[in-house]
Each structure stands twice: as structure tokens, then as C-alpha cells.
Amino acid sequence: MVLDAANLTIQTVNPGYRELYDGRDVNGLSIRDVFVGKDLDKLVKLLKNVIEDGQSIKSGPLLVSAGELENNSGRFIHIIVPIVDNHSSTVNRLFVYSEKAE
Q1: Which of 22, 45, 70, 95 is the most buried (most CB within 10 A)?
Q2: CA gap 1, 12 in Å, rounded
Q3: How many helices and strands in the chain, by DSSP H and E?
């Protein structure tokens, strides 16, 4: 998934995310509109830290996922990579990869 760093809206999703959303077009929606879980605020804080620091991060297991959490169970690890503008050091997009923690 690629997010716009300015407002944390979705720019594009890969087939794995698309499958989670049953083909629903989530482009242009906020991360808060498509991710769920009690740790959503923690994920948003991590996204903002990556934008500010310009450094990739791998979260610990968080109770937040793309889609619905069944019975509020299931933790996911999120890898967040900043994408920098070609002409400056400004982070303008974020690449987010999520996987189920075991």
C-alpha cells in the first residue's frame, strides 16, 4: 500500500490489500477509514514518525489491520518505508507492508 504523506490517504494498493477489501476502491480514503483495531493510533503515530525522521521502521505486533478484525484478535507487524521526492529530501509518500504476527 502507498500512502500520501501529507494526509495519510491511500494512493494505491497491491492485490493482497485489494483482496482484503473485496475489490472496494479505497484509493483516496484515509488510513483511519480502512484500518481497524485498538492500536490504530499507535500505527498513525509510527507513520508520522517515519515522515518526520525519513527512516524506515518495522513495528512490533499491533492490534490493527487492513479490514475487519474478528473478535478483536490478531496482531500485525507493519513495515513502513518513506518514499522521498526526487528533487528534495522531503518524504511525500509511504510504502506500508503488513503481515500477520505469529
Answers
A1: 95
A2: 6
A3: 3, 7
**Distance between CA 76 and CA 100 in Å, rounded?**
4
Range of 75's domain?
Answer: 2-100
- pLDDT category, 2, cuts 50, 70, 90? very high
Q: What is the DSSP string of 16-56?
A: HHHHHTTT---TT-BHHHHEESTTHHHHHHHHHHHHHH---
Distance CA 63, CA 5 (A): 22
Q: Specify the CATH number for the domain of residue 82.
A: 3.30.450.20
The total of structural domains in the chain comes to 1
Is residue 101 a contact partner of residue 77, using CB atoms and an 8 Å limit? yes
Against a cut of 0.85, is the pTM above it?
A: yes
